Amino acid sequence: MRTKIRWSSLGMLAAALAFIAIGVLNGEYQEVLGKAVRICLECIGIG
Amino acid sequence: MSGMHRDRMKGPKKPRLSFQRTIQLLAAVLFNGYAIGFWKGRIFTGGSKAFCVPVLNCYSCPGALGACPIGSLQSVLGDRRSGFPFYVLGTLMLFGVVLGRAVCGLLCPFGLVQDLLHKIPVKKVKVPTLIDRPARYTKYVILLVMVILLPAFAPTETGIVSPYFCKYICPAGTLGGGIPLLLSNPSLRQAAGLLFGWKTLVLAAILIASMVIHRPFCKYLCPLGAFYALFNRFSFYQMHLDGSRCVDCKQCERACPMDVEVTRNINSPECIRCGKCKSVCPTGAISCGFTCHTKEAGKARSGES
């Protein structure tokens, strides 16, 4: 059987990459970094 | 009988560690490579923490080198100054569309913990279908309510909403973050109270349940598994069943830790792509790997009607 590209998967891949690009341009990764380098008291059950 | 002949009679030697276990161990070490953190009672603060790892791996785990995607999603949604969480959601979608729930079966350290606990030789329990089927939807409710809706819409005076899932449920945070940090950091130990007691209770319940039920957290509670489950049908990494080679012996279904009806729906949202079905198939009808195929071709290969 001939193998063809599954467009729904490729569409989602493109959307994912576009979202990441927008997030990087917005500086959202810095927010993620800012949260991840501090001990999250709620996460460990203290806050 | 010579030794060589005896070896031939036994067949090829099985490797001590399966492919799944090897990948799981490597991933656990890779995601938690800051070993000195466990000793010093502090967490890693390098730039790699701007990247989300694909698995439920608390960023407050002393060894964690990356950010937990579920924690990050709640954190961005819960900060009223932030916009739509493009970066975190895009990262989750990327892992989902490439691997689907192979992340759960092959990469997740908390999945590994549950797998190992299930090896303990105690009487195993099969959850009745009447309870099991509806209970599987709990993880989707947790994803929607605790990870998305509450952080995004709960009223707040400070402008920051608590990460509800991390705070009240996440056993990976207690096991990987809470317990090691409290053991090695006296000031944190003094601050532990009722909430830590609750989270320890949740963790203990899940760990005990893991001994008798295979991966109870993945089946019923994990919001990250719920997110990836939505991508299982669309992911590039797929399971395949060759209908012409299948003899319908159902060995695959008996071996499946997630109780997937392999011969009917091999890429079910519940399939974590652990490969157990593939390893027990007597005719080699099951395979897995990366593909780009049409819906029709996929159905034919998956044995769906």
Mean pLDDT of chain B: 90
Largest interface: A-B, 39 and 67 residues
Content of β-strand of chain B: under 5%
Number of strands of chain A: 0
Largest pleated sheet of chain B: 2 strands, antiparallel
* Main pleated-sheet profile of chain A: none
Helix share, percent of chain A: 55-70%
Uncertain stretches of 5 or more adjacent residues of chain B: 1-8, 294-305
Number of strands of chain B: 2
Integer average pLDDT of chain A: 88
| Straight-line distance between termini of chain A | 57 Å
Radius of gyration of chain B: 21 Å
Give your account of this protein's structure:
The complex is a heterodimer of chains A (47) and B (305). Chain A has 47 residues and is mainly alpha-helical. Chain A has one domain (1-47). In chain A, 62% of the residues lie in helices and 0% in strands. Chain B has 305 residues and is mainly alpha-helical. Chain B has two domains: 19-229, no CATH class; 237-302, 2-Layer Sandwich (Alpha-Beta Plaits). Helix content of chain B is 54%, strand content 3%. Chain B is built from 18 helices and two strands. Chain B has a two-stranded antiparallel sheet. Chain B starts with a helix and ends with a helix. At the A-B interface, α1 and α2 of A face α4, α5, α11, α13 and α18 of B.
What secondary-structure arrangement, pairings included, does this model have?
The complex is a heterodimer of chains A (47) and B (305).
Chain A: H1 7-26, H2 28-36
Chain B: H1 3-10, H2 19-31, H3 36-40, H4 69-78, H5 86-99, H6 102-107, H7 109-118, H8 129-135, H9 138-153, H10 164-168, H11 171-184, H12 186-191, H13 194-212, H14 216-221, H15 223-229, E1 237-241, H16 251-255, H17 276-280, E2 286-290, H18 295-302
Antiparallel strand pairs in B: 1-2
Helix pairs in contact in B: 4-5, 4-9, 7-13, 9-15, 11-13
